[in-house]
From TrEMBL:
Keyword Protein biosynthesis listed: no
Keyword Signal assigned: yes
One Pfam family in the UniProt entry: F5_F8_type_C
The protein, known as: F5/8 type C domain-containing protein
Highest rank taxon of the organism: Bacteria
Source species: Bacteroides clarus
Length: 159
Protein backbone atom coordinates (compact mmCIF):
# COMPACT_ATOMS: atom_id res chain seq x y z
CA UNK A 1 0.00 0.00 0.00
CA UNK A 2 2.85 2.41 0.87
CA UNK A 3 4.43 1.77 -2.55
CA UNK A 4 1.18 2.62 -4.33
CA UNK A 5 0.77 5.86 -2.37
CA UNK A 6 4.42 6.79 -2.98
CA UNK A 7 4.08 6.03 -6.71
CA UNK A 8 0.87 8.08 -6.95
CA UNK A 9 2.57 10.98 -5.15
CA UNK A 10 5.50 10.72 -7.57
CA UNK A 11 3.14 10.89 -10.55
CA UNK A 12 1.43 13.92 -9.00
CA UNK A 13 4.78 15.70 -8.62
CA UNK A 14 5.79 14.87 -12.20
CA UNK A 15 2.44 16.14 -13.47
CA UNK A 16 2.79 19.38 -11.48
CA UNK A 17 6.33 19.86 -12.85
CA UNK A 18 5.16 19.26 -16.43
CA UNK A 19 2.38 21.81 -16.01
CA UNK A 20 4.85 24.31 -14.57
CA UNK A 21 6.98 23.86 -17.69
CA UNK A 22 4.12 24.62 -20.10
CA UNK A 23 5.02 27.27 -22.69
CA UNK A 24 2.62 30.04 -21.67
CA UNK A 25 3.22 31.97 -24.91
CA UNK A 26 2.18 29.20 -27.31
CA UNK A 27 -0.46 30.54 -29.73
CA UNK A 28 -1.13 33.62 -27.58
CA UNK A 29 -1.92 37.05 -29.02
CA UNK A 30 1.34 38.67 -30.09
CA UNK A 31 2.20 42.00 -31.68
CA UNK A 32 5.44 43.44 -32.98
CA UNK A 33 7.03 46.79 -33.66
CA UNK A 34 7.12 45.82 -37.35
CA UNK A 35 7.28 42.81 -39.66
CA UNK A 36 9.13 42.00 -42.84
CA UNK A 37 6.47 40.96 -45.35
CA UNK A 38 8.65 39.91 -48.30
CA UNK A 39 9.39 37.45 -49.81
CA UNK A 40 7.24 35.52 -47.36
CA UNK A 41 5.16 36.18 -44.26
CA UNK A 42 7.39 36.88 -41.25
CA UNK A 43 4.57 38.07 -38.95
CA UNK A 44 4.79 38.03 -35.15
CA UNK A 45 2.43 35.03 -34.91
CA UNK A 46 5.29 32.92 -36.29
CA UNK A 47 7.19 33.51 -33.01
CA UNK A 48 4.54 31.72 -30.90
CA UNK A 49 3.35 28.98 -33.28
CA UNK A 50 5.55 26.21 -31.79
CA UNK A 51 7.37 25.70 -35.11
CA UNK A 52 11.12 26.43 -35.15
CA UNK A 53 11.07 26.44 -38.96
CA UNK A 54 8.98 29.64 -39.08
CA UNK A 55 10.08 33.04 -37.81
CA UNK A 56 9.24 36.65 -37.15
CA UNK A 57 11.48 39.29 -38.66
CA UNK A 58 11.36 43.02 -38.09
CA UNK A 59 11.14 45.22 -41.14
CA UNK A 60 14.44 45.41 -43.01
CA UNK A 61 16.66 48.12 -41.57
CA UNK A 62 14.88 48.41 -38.19
CA UNK A 63 17.32 49.56 -35.51
CA UNK A 64 15.21 48.67 -32.46
CA UNK A 65 12.28 46.27 -32.38
CA UNK A 66 10.06 44.32 -30.03
CA UNK A 67 7.68 41.39 -29.66
CA UNK A 68 4.84 41.73 -27.14
CA UNK A 69 2.70 38.86 -25.83
CA UNK A 70 -0.76 39.38 -24.34
CA UNK A 71 -1.76 36.46 -22.10
CA UNK A 72 -5.33 37.79 -21.87
CA UNK A 73 -5.14 37.81 -18.06
CA UNK A 74 -2.51 38.20 -15.38
CA UNK A 75 -0.21 35.18 -15.60
CA UNK A 76 2.67 34.12 -13.37
CA UNK A 77 6.05 33.53 -15.06
CA UNK A 78 9.78 33.80 -14.39
CA UNK A 79 11.59 32.83 -17.58
CA UNK A 80 11.70 33.78 -21.26
CA UNK A 81 13.36 31.46 -23.78
CA UNK A 82 14.33 32.74 -27.24
CA UNK A 83 15.09 30.50 -30.20
CA UNK A 84 17.13 32.70 -32.51
CA UNK A 85 16.96 32.69 -36.26
CA UNK A 86 19.22 30.67 -38.57
CA UNK A 87 21.92 33.27 -37.85
CA UNK A 88 21.69 34.46 -34.24
CA UNK A 89 21.23 38.24 -34.46
CA UNK A 90 20.07 39.68 -31.12
CA UNK A 91 22.99 41.61 -29.61
CA UNK A 92 21.29 43.59 -26.83
CA UNK A 93 17.86 43.06 -25.28
CA UNK A 94 15.58 43.71 -22.31
CA UNK A 95 12.58 41.78 -20.98
CA UNK A 96 9.75 44.07 -19.89
CA UNK A 97 6.38 43.40 -18.23
CA UNK A 98 3.13 45.33 -17.98
CA UNK A 99 -0.40 45.14 -16.60
CA UNK A 100 -1.92 47.38 -19.30
CA UNK A 101 0.36 47.13 -22.36
CA UNK A 102 1.26 50.83 -22.00
CA UNK A 103 3.50 51.23 -18.95
CA UNK A 104 6.46 48.85 -18.99
CA UNK A 105 8.83 47.74 -16.24
CA UNK A 106 12.09 45.91 -17.04
CA UNK A 107 12.67 42.59 -15.28
CA UNK A 108 15.84 41.99 -17.30
CA UNK A 109 17.56 45.21 -18.33
CA UNK A 110 19.76 45.80 -21.40
CA UNK A 111 21.67 42.53 -21.58
CA UNK A 112 24.47 42.48 -24.14
CA UNK A 113 25.22 39.11 -25.67
CA UNK A 114 27.63 37.78 -28.23
CA UNK A 115 25.85 36.62 -31.36
CA UNK A 116 26.82 33.34 -33.01
CA UNK A 117 26.47 34.25 -36.68
CA UNK A 118 27.21 30.75 -37.95
CA UNK A 119 24.12 29.08 -36.48
CA UNK A 120 20.92 29.64 -34.58
CA UNK A 121 20.93 29.57 -30.82
CA UNK A 122 18.57 29.14 -27.92
CA UNK A 123 19.05 31.45 -24.95
CA UNK A 124 17.05 32.30 -21.88
CA UNK A 125 16.50 35.05 -19.36
CA UNK A 126 15.35 34.18 -15.84
CA UNK A 127 14.08 36.65 -13.28
CA UNK A 128 12.07 36.87 -10.06
CA UNK A 129 8.57 35.51 -10.66
CA UNK A 130 5.99 38.12 -11.72
CA UNK A 131 2.25 38.01 -12.36
CA UNK A 132 1.51 40.25 -15.34
CA UNK A 133 -0.75 40.28 -18.39
CA UNK A 134 1.93 41.34 -20.89
CA UNK A 135 5.56 40.49 -21.54
CA UNK A 136 7.78 42.13 -24.14
CA UNK A 137 11.14 41.21 -25.62
CA UNK A 138 12.66 44.60 -26.47
CA UNK A 139 15.59 44.30 -28.86
CA UNK A 140 17.92 47.29 -28.58
CA UNK A 141 20.27 46.11 -31.31
CA UNK A 142 20.79 43.22 -33.68
CA UNK A 143 23.70 42.40 -35.97
CA UNK A 144 24.63 40.18 -38.88
CA UNK A 145 28.30 39.70 -39.75
CA UNK A 146 29.16 42.66 -37.55
CA UNK A 147 26.71 45.03 -39.25
CA UNK A 148 23.39 46.35 -37.89
CA UNK A 149 20.37 44.50 -39.26
CA UNK A 150 16.76 43.63 -38.49
CA UNK A 151 15.95 41.23 -35.65
CA UNK A 152 14.59 37.77 -36.40
CA UNK A 153 13.20 35.23 -33.89
CA UNK A 154 11.96 31.66 -34.52
CA UNK A 155 10.23 31.11 -31.17
CA UNK A 156 9.57 33.21 -28.08
CA UNK A 157 8.60 31.03 -25.11
CA UNK A 158 7.50 32.03 -21.62
CA UNK A 159 7.55 29.83 -18.48
Amino acid sequence: MKKIIFAAFGLFLMSAYAQAQENLALNKTITASSEWARPANYGPDKAVDGDNKTRWSAIKGAAESWLQIDFGEKTKFSKVVVNGDYADRVAKYSIEVSDDGEKWKPVVKEVERECNQSKSSVWEATFKSVKKRYVRLFIHSSVSNGNPCEASICELEVY
